[in-house]
Amino acid sequence: MSLPAGLSPDDLAELRQLLALFAHVFDNGDLDGLAEVFTEDGVIVLAGPGREFQGLDAIREFNRSLGERSPDHHTLDTVFTVDPTDPYGTVRAHSRYLALLPDGSIHNGDYLDVLVRTPKGWRIAHRRSVPRYPVRVQ
Questions:
Q1: Which of 5, 29, 72, 73 has its CA 20 to 30 A from that of 21?
Q2: What is the pTM of this model?
Q3: Residue range 120-137, pLDDT digits in tens
Q4: Cis? peptide before 9, omega within 30° of 0
């Protein structure tokens, strides 16, 4: 299997570590640790409920608001792509996720991420979370 154009094996290892770190930091309410995952102007879009959190402070407040109701996230089957014409080396990641909810039910979907290299390492600049199941009938 070949590497996505423009990514080294070290880049791939760091990117996978970043996506794994999200679950550990977010699910444990590590508000300071979120700066190791997101850029200062990072964005989370929850496509299902139509909510958006812009900036690290808003992401922290969202995380804090979940408290003990925070799902237990698992990121799976990530595919990375790089636009060879992008001078900034922006990487896109498409991952599947499973989230165990406090009541024991399971929720799943896709993460569509834009990942950027910063002076402090790779960070998520934009995350769009798109649910698959359970399907909500309105």
A1: 5
A2: 0.90
A3: 999 999 999 999 987 654
A4: no
Rounded Cα distance between 115 and 131, Å, is 20
CA distance 123 to 41: 11
Task: Enter the DSSP assignment of 67.
Answer: G
Pick from 112, 103, 102: which is nearest to 132 by CA?
A: 112
In which residue are the tokens 């996720």 written?
97
Given a cut of 50, is residue 102 above it in pLDDT?
A: yes
The chain-wide mean pLDDT, for the chain, equals 91
Q: What is the dihedral of CA 108, 24, 127, 93, to 10 degrees?
A: -80
Q: Are 79 and 89 a contacting pair, CB within 8 Å?
A: no
Can you tell me the distance from the alpha carbon of 93 to that of 24, in angstroms, rounded to the nearest whole number? 18
Kindly state the tokens that stand for 71. 């799902």
Between CA 114 and CA 135 the distance in angstroms is 26
Q: What is the pLDDT of residue 137?
A: 46
Tell me the C-alpha distance between 85 and 78, whole Å.
22
